[in-house]
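Researcher: Please translate sequence to structure tokens.
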Amino acid sequence: MVVAEKHVEVLPPRALALDIEQVSHQFSLHGAPLPVLDQVDLHVEAGEFVALLGPSGCGKSTLLRLVAGLDRPTQGRLLVDGREIGKPDPSRILVFQAPTLYPWRTVWQNVAVGLEARGLLPAENRRVDAALDLVGLRAFAKALPHQLSGGMSQRAALARALVNDPSLLLLDEPLGQLDSLTRITMQGELVRLWQRAGFTALMVTHDVEEALLMANRVIVFSPRPARTTASLTVDRPYPRHRDDPALQALRQEIFDLLGFAEA
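Model: Translation complete:
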């Protein structure tokens, strides 16, 4: 008897490496140039979780928009796996602070928006269910946004990003509008999603503790125009605990870099 060889599908690596090379950027304010980024250099390994910290308005969110391909830098280059970023791509998804769900669409329909826009929904609708399972919202697939809590709305926004199977997930203060208890819960859930799905993550936050609890590495920026002033490796196992002396020491080091002598 001849036994047929079992075919095993080999999937390509999902995570993307990111290189930001001598990137500067400016806006025009009342006809005068307003520099926001100044020769930023940063390498992010495939599968890494990197947090960006710095003073409010220093240019962190602008950098995420450049990585997403929504804007082009004034100077310098941004590359994913060696290919220059020139426009938005489903492999690079930006999740904003506010969930921005369509109020007239159900959770399922909101999550399906990306696939629908790309003409993939009829053949790939199972991916919507899988994304809802991943964030624990399958039971709320038919709910409308106003029926969700803040944490559930943010989970729906994450599912909308994850349904596109991103290789690089860009997070712009994704938990900033949540109450403290929900925020703590979502920090752990985001880390578990990253570990399970295998994407590269780049997150802007103003919360030093949040950065240390979630990221492999923390990049500290100067005031505007942003320059990288430090790159700190967070070599602690998950799940992490706030009272970990190593995290406490890193926390104080970051506050010192940001100009706060005691915190």
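Researcher: Any highlights?
Model: The mean pLDDT is 88.
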